[in-house]
Design goal:
Helix content: 25-40%
Strand order of the largest sheet: 8-7-17-16-13-14
Strand content: 25-35%
Distance between the termini: 16 Å
Order of helices and strands: HHHEEEHHEEEEEEEEEEEEEE
Shape: elongated
Number of helices: 5
């Protein structure tokens, strides 16, 4: 399912001409399939479940790199999301943020590629966790709390007039992550329920005013 969604997003990325543009050439979906296969092959049992690689380096030929260059950043984001979706489907755990790098390799033949995968721990060795913003950007959670609000110095600044200046805070408590409302005017909601404090689970939606954020552990 994750790769089907990935392929659909790639079709839209290149204006629906993907099949023609890559006929007989290296197809980005092949890279997505290899990434998820690496996760399956390199997974290992850890304290909190099956740990999968979260750092990937893809080596492609110069000609393929030139073809991908115009949408390289978007492709990297889609590959990272495909890895996260596969982890959710298979109940894999990441110990750090997912990163994908696509590198030009003059030794690679056109149409061929290699993927090197590793397990990279996140900040201070804490389990992976991030807040996904409305525009798709991510704020990776380290050991320190992060504040959400209208103040410019907030780690997650929202311009929503319904949000307070210091609206809420995301904190780590051991291996758990909690959201705490900071006595905001309009309250903080998680999955539709108004909360003062709530332990977050993967996929939870946090609503600040009318701004929707998503918590992810993958």
């Amino acid at each position: 399912m994750g790769l089907q969604k990935f392929e659909g997003r790639l079709e839209r990325l290149v204006d629906g001409t993907l099949s023609k543009a890559f006929r007989g050439e290296l197809h980005p979906v092949e890279i997505g399939r290899r990434l998820t296969r690496e996760m399956d092959l390199q997974r290992r049992l850890g304290v909190h479940g099956l740990i999968a690689p979260n750092a990937f380096v893809v080596h492609i030929s110069t000609s393929d790199f030139d073809r991908f260059e115009s949408f390289l950043d978007a492709l990297v984001r889609e590959l990272e999301e495909a890895a996260r979706e596969h982890a959710r489907t298979e109940d894999y755990v990441f110990v750090g943020p997912v990163t994908v790098s696509i590198m030009e390799d003059t030794r690679q033949r056109r149409g061929r590629f290699t993927v090197v995968s590793e397990v990279h721990e996140g900040p201070s060795g804490l389990p992976a966790a991030s807040i996904v913003l409305a525009d798709g950007d991510r704020v990776v959670l380290g050991p320190e709390p992060i504040t959400i609000g209208r103040l410019p110095e907030s780690a997650v600044m929202v311009t929503d007039p319904n949000a307070s200046r210091r609206h809420a805070e995301i904190r780590r408590v051991g291996n758990d992550v909690i959201v705490v409302d900071l006595n905001s005017t309009n309250g903080t909601r998680v999955n539709g329920a108004t909360v003062r404090e709530r332990k977050l689970a993967d996929g939870d939606q946090i609503v600040i005013g009318t701004t929707v954020l998503r918590f992810e552990t993958s």
